[in-house]
From TrEMBL:
PANTHER family: EG:BACN32G11.4 PROTEIN, ENOYL-COA HYDRATASE. InterPro entries: ClpP/crotonase-like_dom_sf (IPR029045), Enoyl-CoA_hyd/isom_CS (IPR018376), Enoyl-CoA_hydra/iso (IPR001753). This is Enoyl-CoA hydratase/isomerase family protein. Belongs to the enoyl-CoA hydratase/isomerase family. SUPFAM superfamilies: ClpP/crotonase. It comes from Microbacterium invictum.
Amino acid sequence: MTGGAEDSILLTVSDDGLARVTFNRPARLNAMDFAMAERWREIAHRVADDSAIGAVILDAAGPAFCAGGDVVAMSTSGATGDDVTASAHVIHDGIRTLALSDTPIVAAVQGAVAGGGLGLMLTADYIVATEAARFVSRYANIGLTPDLGVTTLLPAAIGQRRALQLLLQDRTLTAEEALDWGLIAEVVPAAELAARAEAIARTWIDGATAAFGQAKRLIRHGADRPFAANLDDEAATIGARFATDEARTRVAAFAAASRSRPRSEETR
């Protein structure tokens, strides 16, 4: 892989297991070309396979979070429909790997999120956006159809009817509208975005890290399985967690605090 491709998405990991994945093609509004797609898949597997990573911040350099696929690259590279399909599969592998991992992800979003950028953003489990963030589909405007998980992750986040409104109309959501729709979790001033995303990630790192990760995994996998299979997985997972020294210590501390608390406070 060329140095340019490696620079298109940056990965850093702190000593305490906080990973930062940064889209880094600001001149192209972080739109994903074919080389960046390969880099995305590579980083997704590195993060998901590293048991020392307890949380991930997904962010972006420049004025926009992600403009989706790089349509200019598609148009000028001589790519065929088969090439575009193959690249979509590569990006989808990365999305699936991160979304179904047991590592919680917070996205820090600024500026435009367009097309497939919506799916990349929704790979995250918790999304914080600036007041100036904007969210739009624009697939049909150029004669294309949704990819990058948009037809699954978007209706899962905001419901089928609202997903259809966004995909079938040339509508742009403001940050406040996206918050109201449930597309994002928080809106903060631009100056506070990085610090807020890190604070959320560190609640996972500093808390019961594995339990947060397993909760995320259960929710993500549960969407595609029968109810009975989810219940079996929940039972096995909570039992496995209860058997750990960390959980036993935390449960004992909670029980001791509950016994010492006045009964009147338990309903407050």
